[in-house]
Amino acid sequence: MRKRKAMAGTAALVLALQGCSADDNAPAAPAASATPAAPAASVPSAVPAASATPAGPAASAPSASATSGLGGAPAPSAAAALDGKRQVFLLPLLNDTELPDSVLAVTAGGRIQVTDDYGDRALFVPVPSSSGAKARLIKTGTLRAGGEPFCLQVRANGANPLTVMTAACNAQEPTQLFTFESSGEDDEGRPTYAVRNRDAFLQWHPLGGIGLVAEELGDSTLETTFTLLDQGAATLPKPR
Hints:
By secondary structure, the protein is mainly β. The protein is 5% helix and 37% strand. The chain has one domain: Trefoil (Acidic Fibroblast Growth Factor, subunit A).
């Protein structure tokens, strides 16, 4: 069982996280993707204002009781959280340490960042790209454009690290296909996962203003893994 490790500088990381929660000024990602992109018309660069959650204070972190299931019922299995029928929070662990008020969410600019907003922008649904496939689309649980969810997509960012943005869902687009690789358990016994798009892993760099990026590890060590916290049945529209 993986244990959380004490980390020096936690206060600095929390301050950095609070800065990410209002990431409206994050640089917009260029239209080009890391691979030949899908038709430009199908790839919005940001969440339209109509689909954004109303402005206001960030939702508070879920209570401890949320980790044991809804309404007192047993929490769904780890496999159920990846079958496209449950919506989840993606909680990052940095060097095996889960920091308070840290969850992946869609910013106003359409980028995926670690924030302290546990509202609709932080709900995601991992959906197998096809029957029995290991690769998954990560769809927005509540945010919609024209009634359809967005999907996470890795985007090229010039000489800077790859970023993760929202885009129109396309199961044939390689930059939208993610695998969840088991990396052990946290100290509450919940499975943890490394999240990978091809050769690049989602990595969180809270210091230095980089935030969440996708990186090829090379000789580096994987520092960021994720716990999936179940938030009930998904409400995705049926495929057309």
